[in-house]
Amino acid sequence: MKTFKTLQELWSYFLYCPLCPHVERVIDISGGPAETFKVLSFKKKDHLLYLNCNKGGKYIINCLDNSIRSDIGQYIIPVFPNLPFFFLNITGFCKKCNATFAYSGNLVIDPIAKLITNIRIEYQDIYIANDYNITYNYDYDTMNIFKSINGGKPCSLPLVEFDFFDIETVIKKLKAYILFS
Ligand SMILES: [Zn+2]
């Protein structure tokens, strides 16, 4: 499990591409449950995240303390304890290498405390040299590795964070993992 204390920390992690130094990934946000709560557009300025949602809902999230408030004085996310919870999903995608994708878990909106909770990354996909694919599953602290070109069955291993700046060493390790799995 990989969690973040604040939305700002998650945002920084999602911005950074593990394969491309100094490249910012494209971040997208959606809301859920999909039939009830949608994020139509968003804008981030410093630590404030502005959400423009369906039903005219406009929210501001303070990414440093995870608080959420309504911009128009009316908080449309209903407070019904037994209803499905409302949440945000964040993705990060590198347009330069086209090879790294990060997906958050459901960032839960607590309508009583007016806080974003459960701030965590769920998956990350990394394609290396068009040849190897690593899928990190942070909920289970595992990773699946497979050779993209020949397909083949993925090998599932305990999660290892690689130093992707030394890509040759990473490829050697991946070859060894596949060979001995
Ligand atoms: Zn990249």
Topology of helices and strands:
Blueprint (H helix, E strand, L loop, with lengths): L1 E2 L3 H9 L10 E7 L6 E7 L2 E6 L4 E5 L4 E4 L15 E8 L6 E5 L2 E4 L4 E3 L2 E9 L3 E6 L4 E6 L3 E8 L8 H14 L1
Antiparallel strand pairs: 1-11, 2-7, 3-4, 4-5, 5-6, 7-8, 7-9, 8-11, 9-10, 11-12, 12-13, 13-14
This protein binds zinc ion (ZN).
The site of zinc ion (ZN) has 8 residues, from loops.
Number-wise, the strands total 14
The computed structural class is mainly beta
Q: Tell me the number of structural domains.
A: 2
Bound molecules: zinc ion
- Mean of pLDDT: 89
The low-confidence parts are none
Helix proportion range: 10-25%
Instruction: State Rg.
Output: 19 Å
User: How do the helices and strands follow one another from N- to C-terminus?
Assistant: EHEEEEEEEEEEEEEH
- Strand content of the residues, in percent? 35-45%
Q: Shape from CA axes?
A: elongated
Largest sheet: 10 strands, antiparallel
Number of helices: 2
**N-C termini distance:** 24 Å
Keywords:
about 180 residues, mainly beta, 2 domains, ten-stranded antiparallel sheet, four-stranded antiparallel sheet, 2 helices
Structure description:
Strand 3 and strand 4 (48-53) form a beta hairpin. This protein has helices at 7-15, 167-180, and strands spanning 2-3, 26-32, 39-45, 48-53, 58-62, 67-70, 86-93, 100-104, 107-110, 115-117, 120-128, 132-137, 142-147, 151-158. Strands 1, 2, 7, 8, 9, 10, 11, 12, 13 and 14 form a ten-stranded antiparallel β-sheet that branches. It has 181 residues and is mainly beta. The chain folds into two domains: 2-124, no CATH class; 129-180, no CATH class. It binds zinc ion. Zinc ion binds next to loops.
